[in-house]
Amino acid sequence: MARDVTYSSYLDLARILAAQHPASDAHDEFLFIIVHQASELWLKLCLHELEAARELVIADDLDPAFKMLSRVAQAQRQLISSWDVLATMTPHDYSLIRPHLGSSSGFQSAQYRMMEFILGGRDPKKVTMHEATPEVADKLRAELARPSLYGEVLRLLRKRGFAIPQGVVEGELGTPHQSIPEVVEAWAQVYRDPKTHWDLYELAEKLVDLEYHFQRWRFGHLKTVERIIGFKTGTGGTAGVPYLESVLKLGFFPELLAVRTEL
């Protein structure tokens, strides 16, 4: 019965609050665990909204999709602010935790990878690290086999009569999208006449918001790692700060940035 539901039972707090298992006696490991667990919950919400928004784009029903994309942007703000909390950890604090992390790394976050894939930042090689969990690897491969959110947006542009070349979306399912002049021109038409193409104009700006916040999250990650461990190699085997710097160059919607130069 609904009257038997409590705040704690509805949110399953007993399991959530019992899910922190520090491997050391370091005081700050509790912070380290909670920040990453909370981030995974925000990522779960982002995926929930992005997947639903993509279906609405496919259906050419953009108004409710705008709400979902705005919600993702707000969730991204929460992810970005989490770096400020984690940055209260000093190099000494982290040195007490790091030996207990083994080869575990945020680089292994399947939800982060899925969000990259849905937005269009696709690299099949990144599925490899998830092969130890077959159901996760299968989900990532299934995502690579279908158009990204941006791919569906380009299909919508074609459906609306813009000159999007055939095969653009289908030819890039498993790779990062590269800027295409015809797509830049299509967005230029939208941006030059927003009154005529208002919903597409708003959709474009919602996508720019997502990329903007994603890059802010990446930059926050970079500066937090730099502050805490300097230029050490990452626990997952990456180059650490140099790797995070290289990732900052990877965008999702190149034409939406290129069109700003055209206008």
How many helical elements? 12
Give the amount of beta strand, in percent: under 5%
- Poorly predicted parts: none
How many beta-strand elements? 0
| Helix proportion range | 55-70%
Largest sheet: none
The radius of gyration is: 20 Å
Q: What is the approximate shape?
A: globular
The ordered H/E elements are: HHHHHHHHHHHH
Task: Report how far apart the termini are.
Answer: 59 Å
- The class by helix and strand makeup works out as mainly alpha
Q: Give average pLDDT, whole number.
A: 92
Task: Explain how this protein is built.
By secondary structure, the protein is mainly α. It is 62% helix and 0% strand. 25% of the residues are buried. The mean pLDDT is 92.
Q: What are the main properties of this structure?
A:
single chain, globular, mainly alpha, 263 residues, 62% helix
Write the layout of secondary structure elements.
Layout: H1 7-11, H2 13-17, H3 29-58, H4 62-86, H5 91-97, H6 110-119, H7 134-144, H8 149-159, H9 181-192, H10 198-229, H11 241-247, H12 254-262
Helix pairs in contact: 3-4, 3-6, 3-8, 4-10, 6-7, 9-12, 10-11
Q: What is shown here, in short?
A:
By secondary structure, this protein is mostly helical. Helix content is 62%, strand content 0%.
